[in-house]
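## retry 2 of 3
previous attempt timed out at serialization; input unchanged, resubmitting
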Amino acid sequence: MGTLKFHFMKSTAIALAFIGVTGILGAPGEASAQIAKNVAAKSPWGPADEIGTLNMMTDNSRLDILKQVAGGKVYDLGVDLFIGMPTCCGAFGDPSFQIFLTHAPSRGDPAKELLSYAGDAVNMYTHTGTHLDALNHFGLHGKIWNEYSASEHLGVRGWTKAGIDKYPPIVARGVLIDVAKSKALKHLPASYAITVADLQDALKKQGTTLQPGDVVLIRTGVMTLWPDESKYRLLDEPGLSLEAAQWLVEGQKAMLLGSDNFGVESLPSPDPANFVPVHSYLQAERGVSILEAVWLEDLSKDQAYEFLFMASPLKFRGGTASPIRPIAISIQRR
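## retry succeeded, writing output
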């Protein structure tokens, strides 16, 4: 027990030191300060809203995208879950993925066993593998999206508001922005912060136009490092800058953002006071949920940049995330 405690404390100290030391290398810029207000926002969908921009989905929008399906090939955007897989947050004390048998058939004489029964159980952090973050994952000053406060809405087992159980199945137009391919790179360099110009350049090369209500998936290429947990890691990942995130959700009206990395945004943060400024901006200030560790390699290989996106989280009551297995099906390009 003492050894385990030592290793946990050591890994946590290393992670926090990394964030702190690298964070102070650059103070948050003026542009970042203007983007993020650092205050949880009220929802434009009313005081009872718990799903933010997912309110952009309607029966008509779902039917419209379903009508555009151009073929039968299904792209699996989820990664395998297995013991020893890369996990984002072990350094913070969160559990690794474990699966074990609770019931197993006999390994003896099969003639003596009519019914062979197997069952298993799982222990995991809800932010494991390909997953969807709920809006109660990150807040600001004790409040999450729609100004739900921890003092009023946080119970002994978690949040009573904005949990993953409130999320509807997601059926929408999806767009891949292949930043790595646009730069002719296998994957972006560590800690690279994707700019607005990077997104615009990739979209231009792809011949792709964003539309309001899109699920926008950013390919950094780091899934080419999966599942090597020494290389596929959180704390120095390439990803979106705050400015790029703002351009997508405020300028292009994206409904949902995702990426092939652990945390969507570039790390370490340029802000020493906030180690995940893109998360808090998107979730607490804009009501935008986040997809993480999405498998985008097959879409990239086939240059399938526009598609029907479908995913549905498990209904963990009050959960801050859920593992998902999204699928994509190519649509007719307009």
